[in-house]
Amino acid sequence: MQMKAPAVTPTGLKAACSQCNLRELCLPFGLTGEEIDRLDALVATRRKVRRQHHLYSAGAPFEAIYAIRTGSFKTDVLLEDGREQVTGFQMTGEILGLDGISSETHSCNATALEDSEVCVIPFAQLEDLSRQVESLQHQFHKVMSREIVRDHGVMMLLGSMRAEERLAAFLLNLSKRFMARGYSPAEFHLRMTRDEIGSYLGLKLETVSRAFSKFQDEGLVAVHQKHIRIIDLDGLRQLLTHCAKRP
Amino acid sequence: MQMKAPAVTPTGLKAACSQCNLRELCLPFGLTGEEIDRLDALVATRRKVRRQHHLYSAGAPFEAIYAIRTGSFKTDVLLEDGREQVTGFQMTGEILGLDGISSETHSCNATALEDSEVCVIPFAQLEDLSRQVESLQHQFHKVMSREIVRDHGVMMLLGSMRAEERLAAFLLNLSKRFMARGYSPAEFHLRMTRDEIGSYLGLKLETVSRAFSKFQDEGLVAVHQKHIRIIDLDGLRQLLTHCAKRP
DNA sequence: GTATCGGTTTGATCCAAGTCAACCCTTGCT
DNA sequence: AGCAAGGGTTGACTTGGATCAAACCGATAC
Question: DSSP character for A104?
């Protein structure tokens, strides 16, 4: 019988980017060994976040950005009337919290989809160091810009694609990101519910479910609850470019 | 009979942030006089962009970001099959080109909605200077973060709002931005077509037109082609929060 | 003046996705 | 084992916005 752990725990452990196998995906990318050591000095702590708990919430003061070490998160914004829009799903090596810089206050919620661990990167110190380390500065700018480009992709998806195209794009995106992390691009486990996928894609959960079933019927993927196996990667890709060719 | 000017013209004029009445909205915000002078030294040229012409296009190499001095722009991404998604409308004091940082290549098109002028800010030099000038570094980070937050707002709009809510949100947003620039928040001229508004809002132009007509019938706004007068600002706001309360 | 053209409005119909509702899995708890 | 609860699937029906089509308006060109 285990003690209920608090939602967010400082582990006290040093983050040690230099030892981290995610460094090629994360903020240390492109840094020399010596530069990474300086970044290490600044990434003082890790923090565990239990499933369903917030890493930060909208309105909370902004102090740090976070690099995901293990696990995964969703970010969402809420309307006064309770409508939720999931703005993204983040996995290991990705950076959370950039939304907070503009107003010194977080503008969205970041929620762990499974028990997860992040590296805490105090923002003021990151700015200090990136004034000294050019490659860090540049990589940080790239990370922010990548987020902007990603957001534009989501707008494209939400504004111009049909339900099945959206889901195909979503699956292909996940596949690519799992592959980049050394996992199978063809077989993976979804950490989010149909409802959350729907919110992200601007669809209702029933529509997501139907699209999954349709893909399964057409032999594109094998769906078993949250377990996904992509059978016909090219078929999915064609759904995006080709099916789009509808007049 | 005037000579046809080229689409994009270097004017040779110094940009002179220190003299610019937009500096409170733009990159120089929060900088001391001396710091602004250093920024001036870097913002070497202005460039004129004629209506309907690109400031940059998707795929073009990234070298600089741009601050809008006069006029306005749209940014859009295109799908292979020709579908267009407008990702934003930018006005004076706003920064264009941040999408290019991540891959050294622009990922969207920026098109002038009217004859416009931008300040060219060479990016490598901006990074150099922002390593020396803390307040510039911080302001630049805020500008990027603001773009991310804005994008999340658009996702909310595209993913969770109904047609009329989207248009109301759009008008309120324009109103706020005109006000911030010293123009009337209640009466303004749209620089974009119904089709472009539709693309931005994830709607067809007919739907945009119908929503405008409905607002007019309800006495919320007076619409005369591209001329807009907001009659009932609170009514529009309620459309957003209240009408959202529909079960 | 009249023609032309891009953009806008309005009407009539259609359909993709939403809604409502029932049922079916898993998984975890007693 | 049995039950409850939270997801997920599937079906029947509704609807908001898309589509198609026609007319309208305000510019500029002739």
Answer: T
Q: Distance from residue A93 (CA) to nucleotide C21 (C1'), in Å?
A: 42
Fold matches, B8-146 and B161-245: no
What is the model's pLDDT at position A7? 54
For residues B76 and B39, the answer to whether their CB atoms sit within 8 Å is no
**Chain D nucleotides near the protein (CB, 7 A):** 7-12, 16-21, 26
The 3-state DSSP class for residue B39 equals helix
Name the residue ranges covered by the structural domains of chain B: 8-146, 161-245
Query: Which architecture, in CATH terms, is A8-147?
Result: Sandwich (2.60)
pLDDT tens for each residue of A206-247: 999 999 999 999 999 999 989 999 999 999 999 887 544 343
- CB-CB neighbours of B177 under 10 Å: 19
Q: Which residues touch strand C (CB under 7 A)?
A: A 162-164, 202-204, 206-207, 225; B 190, 193-195, 205-206, 208-210, 212-213, 223, 225-226, 247
Cα distance from A157 to chain B (closest Cα, Å)?
A: 9
Tell me the mean pLDDT in the region B165-187. 96
Kindly report, residue by residue over B189-234, the tens digit of the pLDDT.
Answer: 999 999 999 999 999 999 999 999 999 999 999 999 899 999 999 9
Partner-chain residue, chosen from A79, A144, A159, that has the shortest CB–CB distance to B199: A159
The yes or no reply on domain B8-146 and CATH 3.40.50.300 is no
Quick check: A101 and B142 CB within 8 A? Answer: yes
Cβ atoms B198, B208 nearer than 8 A: yes
Q: How many other CB atoms are there within 10 angstroms of residue B34's CB atom?
A: 9
What is the third-level CATH fold of A161-245? Arc Repressor Mutant, subunit A (1.10.10)
Give the minimum alpha-carbon distance from A160 to chain B in angstroms, rounded to a whole number.
6
**What is d(CA A164, CA A208) in angstroms, rounded to the nearest whole number?**
8
